[in-house]
Specification:
mainly alpha; Endonuclease Iii, domain 2; Endonuclease III, domain 1; 0% strand; iron; 4Fe-4S
């Protein structure tokens, strides 16, 4: 039976280093984590590009910009009105709790910071854990829809498992390693996009085909 470390090695050999998460600063990664909710990454890239074009991708500018104007710039990401408020909510949290310093925030204990992030309106477990892993270099495994789909189809998880249960499942079976968690999440995303699709899965050419119990 396939194991979690074994699947990692197989996918790592197939794809190589994925170089994920794309972002040049902590702030860009955090904004991307919020914008990617319920949309494709290609749409996030367009929204990030707009923020950069108008020099809005800074804490100073995001503090003062009106939600309505911010929403116009992030429109390609979808749900732009809600996401503009979520970005502003995060900035308020950062200023209130960590004196506006991403560096100070990133140095906070992982469990405490995760609990605090989850208290921000619009920040759920996947977004919080993406911020922890990619922006703060915390060893936290990120679970997404691809994770649930792939590993339930392989017979390793139940499809209705909770987010936290799936996270514990992975973290229990792997060493706590930021680089490995980062790469594994990227590998899962690639398999989900390329092969293990919700509709029209490509089982015949999937690198996990021989390990998978599911037939699409």
């Amino acid at each position: 039976m396939a194991t979690i470390p074994g699947i990692y090695r197989l996918l790592n050999a197939w794809y190589g280093d994925c170089g994920w998460w794309p972002g040049h600063s902590r702030l860009e990664i955090i904004i991307g984590a919020i914008l990617t909710q319920n949309t494709a990454w290609s749409n996030v890239e367009k929204a990030i590009a707009s923020l950069k074009q108008y020099r809005l991708l800074s804490l100073a500018r995001l503090r003062v910009i009106l939600c309505a104007r911010l929403a116009r710039h992030i429109r390609p990401s979808g749900y732009f009105n809600q996401k503009s408020k979520r970005i502003k909510n995060f900035i308020t949290f950062l200023d209130t709790r960590y004196r506006g310093s991403l560096r100070v925030m990133a140095a906070a204990p992982t469990a405490d910071l995760r609990e605090q992030l989850l208290c921000i309106n619009g920040i759920g477990p996947e977004t919080a854990d993406s911020i922890l892993l990619y922006a703060c270099d915390k060893p936290v495994f990120v679970v997404d829809a691809y994770t649930r789909r792939i590993f339930s189809r392989m017979g390793l998880l139940k499809e209705d498992e909770t987010y936290d249960a799936i996270q514990r499942f992975f973290e229990k079976r792997m060493r706590s390693d930021i680089r490995v968690y980062n790469q594994y999440h990227a590998l899962i995303v690639n398999v989900g996009k390329d092969f293990c699709r919700k509709l029209d899965p490509r089982c015949g050419t999937c690198p996990l085909g021989k390990e998978c119990a599911w037939q699409g």
